[in-house]
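Sequence and structure are no longer studied apart. To make this concrete, we show below a single chain and its fold as tokens.
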Amino acid sequence: MRRRLGSVRARAALGATLVVAVALVAAGAAVLLALESSLSGQAGAQADRAAREVAAELAAGHAHDRLSLDDEDRPVQVVTEDGTLVAATEGLERISGTGTDAVRPAPGAARAPAQAGHAAATPDDDDDDADASAPRPGEIGEDTAFRDGSATVDGDTADYRFASVSVETDDRGALTVHAGAPLSSEHSAVGTALTVMLIGFPLLLAVVAGVTWLVTRRALRPVEGIRREMAAITASADLARRVPEPDTHDEVARLARTTNETLTALQSAVERQRRFVADASHELRSPIASLRTQLEVGAAHPELLDVPGAVEDTVRLQDLAADLLLLARLDAGERPADARVDLAALVREATAQRTGVRVDAEPVEVAGSRGQLSRVLANLLDNAGRHAREEVTVSVRRERRPDGRWALVSVADDGDGVPEADRERVFERFVRLDAARTRDEGGAGLGLAIARDVAERHGGTLTVRQAPAGGALFELRLPAA
């Protein structure tokens, strides 16, 4: 059960069901309250109409025993100011909610004599203002009071909505008429609506849960396909496989596309690493084999030991190991130091011991690692020196561009240059152009690759194009400090 609730489908179905359940309960309660209020209002209107009909008869002077009180559906009471019941519906056995529990008129009330004060009273001029707002004889009060109660008429007990209306008579003084309208239709309608809700709401919630489960299952089916394919890729270690991409344009399709892009990048990185290891092994094999041969010959015939050649192979092996170590650090994400470096001074320092190099440098500072930037300049100068016929030109200047201030280091030679088709390939690791380098004259093909990696780690670029003199022009751009 816990595992099922842990799935996205189960959580989505449960969440949607809870939301709909809360909405249905709120809507159902509102409907029931509105229905009850409406039906109660209708019952009150009926009770008010019945009470005013009886009050009209009293205002017209009808005797208590001549009133229309024979409707069993409308229990009626007529009471005096002191609460004495003077008339009631025939067959009334019990009543509550009107304030008067009596169901039988008081003896002699059917023909009650006129109140002395009312029969002889003649208002004088002094009382005109005081009685102006009171109901006059024969008038029915405008206000109606409503109460809920119950009554038993001829053995039938029911709930009623009672309306109370006052009336002023000539001979009997102020009377109050209590008339009721049954609430059975209200109770029946509310009960029916409640029954429908109790039956319909669970069915509706079941439908919502089922539809949500099916829709979520369909929507997540591609995700399950992606998961299965990723599990298969992990088990087989075959990075050439790709996850299926749905034809939709939603988040799942973008997830599949991003996953495949990640797999492509990972495959490329693994293949590049494998090539790197294979090329490094090949490059290390040659100087190690040569050095071992020389040492074995020297051990057997000391007079034939080529000491300068052994030293040269050892130095080459040491340089290659240093290059490989630097590349490993760069691949591991080593960040350059944040020191300020004067490129003009760095160029003059790098070219001080070199011949055939012309320098034109203006002071410009960058932020980075002095050691790594020195390595870049040395690699570029070594590359230019191997291909130049007579002269290498190095320049350092500021460059203002829309995206900020840059420092530009240019290293140009007057050699054959780099063919346009190879101007990106030349920065790949262990790449030697066919006629440009040999293992003896050049290196392992790591110098330019290291230079570009260092430039990119410093937020810059390293590109090559044709120099004005016809050779290669390498341009190193770094953000100015």
In short: Residues 1-5, 112-134, 435-440 have pLDDT under 50 and may be disordered.
